[in-house]
């Protein structure tokens, strides 16, 4: 391991210096090979991939001064490489959170029997009922829902529906309207109490 401070080693890595433990690849040079450079054409092996050699500081400077990126290119290839937007004309995938194609839209599906739409509406209605929210955006308390169940009213009933249902239940349970039958007095009291609560509720005001 190097005895140099971490900050010095990090600075060296920024400039390309690596402690390879190899001597400079230039024949006769005894300096350590700390900089990686491409191998000359005649010294590359037959397998694919980049071929590297390790050079000392002086020899890598000499290599950089004589390096020609355009060596071996035709005039057309050089002109193409020098274009300011070279490479940007290639087709790339659209950016997304997971690098995949966007999901299909509902408009892409044919649903002649409204099977998808009906199922969706059913699920929305159930979710709305579970969340105690009416179509008008107002929420019902647990007590509101309990009293509406006593009167057998739907969650979206309005004030007119409440009064109509109350009148119907009074005629059904009150002794004056069912031949003096007093067996429904407990149900009658429950309906009167439910109506008294609901008519003061926010959703029916």
UniProtKB/TrEMBL annotation:
Instruction: Provide the J domain boundaries.
Output: 146-203
Instruction: Please give the superkingdom of this protein's source.
Output: Bacteria
What InterPro entries does UniProt report for this protein, alphabetically?
DnaJ_domain, J_dom_sf
Q: Which PROSITE patterns match?
A: DNAJ_2 (PS50076)
Name the UniProt record assigns to this protein: Molecular chaperone DnaJ
Write down the Pfam families for this protein, in alphabetical order: DnaJ (PF00226)
């Amino acid at each position: 391991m190097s005895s140099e401070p971490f900050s010095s080693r990090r600075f060296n890595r920024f400039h390309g210096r690596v402690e390879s433990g190899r001597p400079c690849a230039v024949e006769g040079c005894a300096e350590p090979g700390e900089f990686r450079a491409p191998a000359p054409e005649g010294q590359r092996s037959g397998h694919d991939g980049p071929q590297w050699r390790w050079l000392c500081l002086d020899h890598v400077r000499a290599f950089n001064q004589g390096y020609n990126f355009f060596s071996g290119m035709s005039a057309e290839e050089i002109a193409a490489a020098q274009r300011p937007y070279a490479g940007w004309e290639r087709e790339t995938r659209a950016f997304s959170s997971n690098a995949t194609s966007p999901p299909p839209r509902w408009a892409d599906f044919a649903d002649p029997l409204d099977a998808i739409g009906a199922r969706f509406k059913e699920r929305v209605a159930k979710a709305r009922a579970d969340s105690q929210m009416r179509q008008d955006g107002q929420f019902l308390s647990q007590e509101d829902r309990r009293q509406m169940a006593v009167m057998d009213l739907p969650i979206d009933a309005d004030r007119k529906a409440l009064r109509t249902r109350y009148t119907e239940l009074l005629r059904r349970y009150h002794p004056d309207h069912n031949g003096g039958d007093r067996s429904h007095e407990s149900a009658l009291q429950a309906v009167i109490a439910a109506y008294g609560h609901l008519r003061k509720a926010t959703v029916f005001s």
